Amino acid sequence: MxxxxxxxxxxxxxxxxxxxxxxxxxxxxxxxxxxxEALAGAPDGTTVFAEEQTKGRGRFGRTWFAPRGxxxxxxxxxxxxxxxxxxxxxxxxxxxxxAEAVEDIAGVEARIRFPNDVLVGxxxxxxxxxxxxxxxxxxxxxxxxxxxxVAFGRADLPEDLREAATSLAIERGAEVxxxxxxxxxxxxxxxxxxxxDGGLRAIRKAWRERSAILGRKVRVRESGRxxxxxVDEVDPIEGLVLRLESGHVRAVRGEHxxxxxxxxxx
Length: 266
Hints:
The protein is of the alpha+beta class and about 270 residues long.
């Protein structure tokens, strides 16, 4: 069943996110279309869905595997009143929302791999791409792109992704309604978005509790540099604190992370 504005809006309980919904058959990127909507004056919470993206993208120009009609692909226009130092909370809130939606629909535990991936059983089930522009002196316009794998099976995945990715249908072992996923995602994002201004403690606590990497040995690539260490602490604003083999600690900001791999602890 294709996604429509009416089907998503039915029984949707949100205050901001989803107040305007646009559903497309195909587009190059929902983020690009959301930018068009935003720059034309679309209100806070406007959401663009697409059945298919021809040039869907992730962080650092990576592509996103999502055959037509198998995922929830959406981008949300957000216009928060937010201080520059709190900008990472946008990504954190979206990741928390995606994780909650996955758990709500599939009944499985979802974890966050810093800074923007949602995992089930160590495999990626959702990803976040946040883009922003400074129209005034503050970052006052964000596009939050979210992709959730819903309907494909393990055999549908390219061989190189079968151990790295999963879907709600795989994890639940049954067909899953994309409309239900879309609705659960918007409701969860609406709740967390309203926490950004004053709910820093709640976001930090939930983010830490959902971390897939806290206490794990990881390999982090940032700004062309690779570092291996154990994650001593994780925070949506401050980033990672890695304990290196030398015993020294190193802080890594989320916006600088190009790739993070979880390694086996020795």
